[in-house]
Amino acid sequence: MPFSESDIVDLTGKVAIVTGGNSGLGLQTVKVLASKNARVYLACRSIEKFNQAITEIKNTCNSYFVKNVSFLQLDLASAATAKAAANEFNTKENKLHLLYNNAGVMGTPKGKVSDDGYEYVITSFLYPKATPLTHSPDVKQFAVNTFALFVFTYHLLPTLQSTATSSSPGTVRIINTASSGAKQAGRAGIPLDSSPTVGAEYSPSQCYGHSKIGVILLTRQLARRYPSILSFAPHPGPVQSNLTRELGIPSWVMAILNKVVFKPAEYGALTQLFAGTTPTLTAEDNGGYLVPPAKLDSKLPHKQCYDDVFGAKLWDWCMTAMRKLEE
């Protein structure tokens, strides 16, 4: 039988975070977790976006579930605010059972960098002899989808680990939303050495691919470094969301795509809900990549996703960059 929302058991006593929980896949994930009585922190950029999401939940679900949803301010465009959000959560809760790193960007145009300009900090530290950049490269996708995800998760790991010690094995999980779009990176994969800004010379679609390879590699690293926590990287499939907002697609074209190609958020969210809640996934599956409809897939979307030596290098790169920013 295919997995459905009705297969999710009661989550009373469980604490969850869903980043980008104010729309699309994230909002659907919040709705379902809250309906199963989890205490859910909806992480998004502003209280205004949170309130809009709460209105949506009231209009489409049982308003009783709203009591299970709390606001956590998080802007992944800045590594500093990603850390601050994790620290804020840690002052409110001493347990975290489910971390859904769902938020992301796609196709940001040339000239977009992260808010705290981490690219330039990393350039001067990791590449002291590099020629200073004369333009803003297209690196925001890597900053948001990969690096800020790492920073946010890293500062939540102590809480996740302590929760795992007092919980049933396999019930504390990290779910990093991946994408088959990793194949857009090109044959070489993430240019971690060739460019200090990880993608300055590449197209927006290639940069998106770099960032999603990074998500899969970091998920595999989490599984190896923190085996008491189950970490998964689900690909939701083509889903109706605002992820395409930076692509400049005319509204009439999007209307057609939403009818013909993209599936409702309810469909896309099922795979990540499965990854976070099903007891059929065990330690043997830790670090796995999932595809719709809610199943593990041993075939990864890019050859570099299998390279755990490079994954360890990416982990160290993120760690070095994070520590430099915190000085």
From TrEMBL:
InterPro entries given in the database record: NAD(P)-bd_dom_sf (IPR036291), SDR_fam (IPR002347)
Q: Which Pfam families match?
A: adh_short
What protein family does this chain belong to? Belongs to the short-chain dehydrogenases/reductases (SDR) family.
Enumerate the UniProt keywords alphabetically. Answer: NADP, Oxidoreductase
Show the SUPFAM superfamilies listed in the entry. NAD(P)-binding Rossmann-fold domains
According to the UniProt entry, its GO molecular function terms are:
oxidoreductase activity
Please give the name of this protein.
Putative oxidoreductase C736,13
